Amino acid sequence: MHEDEHGFYKKYDTLNDDFGNRLHTIYSASIIYTLLKIYDFDKDERILEGIPDWGDFLLSMQSKDKETRGAFHYSYYFKSKEKEPRFVVGTTALSIFTLLDLYNRTGDSKYLESAKLGGNWLTTMQRSDGWMKAYKEYKGGEWVYGEKKSLLYNGQVLSALSRLYKVTGEKRYYDAAEKITQCFTEKVEKEGCYLGDDYRSKNPISSAWVVMSLLDFYKINQDEYYKNIIFKCSGELLGKQQLETDEPLYYGTWDRAKGEFQHT
Asked: Where would one find coiled-coil regions in this protein (predicted)?
């Protein structure tokens, strides 16, 4: 974590003792979310003490500009004080996870209002067929969009919108979530539970995000159809887990889930 900005780095270069020159919103949101869950386990008061500063960094990364209002900048160059003009739907979605958790714990409406603004922007990034555009970025003097389909990003957005609807009851979030759900269920019906997308061939991480996000949607629409898909696909994923004891280093893992899994 940067001591002054209170945002989190993506990685640490041990050979060169270097954290890099920017802080990443998605890693900051994910680390805060993880620390909050750790607090639930061991009640470490240092975590609660960090909430105001961490929360303020996260809020500061939300765009107030008309063109991208509600979206979260991908990263922040702390030396030049510049925010990257790149807005990834997964970054905003995972920020919503954390903001809703912060709101639930503190009761501070600023976190809920920020989450809603993020959700509103996400609905503008949905294509007519229900799939999400991956990102919006200012590049070469114009706004460009990521048109590749990503199960990971769509899953993150589906979960975020489902959670927002559960808290707010605002129909716009449900409607957008339902469209992604339809995209997922149609894909499962056609291709099965082990899935890939425009970024990756079939792999367990993309497949797991379909299941996890459908579970969030099931919490707001308890249709048996969704429950059946959740159990069916969860079972198939478990069946692909490596349980051979002659490879102890990989016991319990999944093929194609090792190493860094990131969209660029």
From this structure: none
Count of residues for the chain? Answer: 264
**CA–CA distance, 255 with 241 (Å, rounded to integer):** 8
Secondary structure (DSSP) of 204-218: HHHHHHHHHHHHHHH
User: Exposed, middle or buried, 157 (CB in 10 Å: 0-12/13-18/19+)?
Assistant: buried
pLDDT in the model for residue 144: 96
pLDDT at 13 (0 to 100): 78
Q: What angle do CA 143, 262, 88 make, to 5 degrees?
A: 30
DSSP percent split of the chain into helix, strand, coil, nearest 5: 55, 10, 35
Low-confidence ranges of the chain (pLDDT < 50): 259-261, 264
**Segment (H or E) for 102:** helix 89-106
Distance CA 63, CA 121 (A): 10
In CATH terms, 1-124 corresponds, of 3.60.10.10, 3.40.20.10, 1.50.10.20, 1.20.1250.20, to 1.50.10.20
pLDDT for res 17: 76
- Summarised one tens digit per residue, pLDDT across range 137-186 is 999 999 999 999 999 999 999 999 999 999 999 999 999 999 999 999 99
Secondary structure E strands in 49-174: 75-77, 82-83, 86-88, 135-139, 142-145
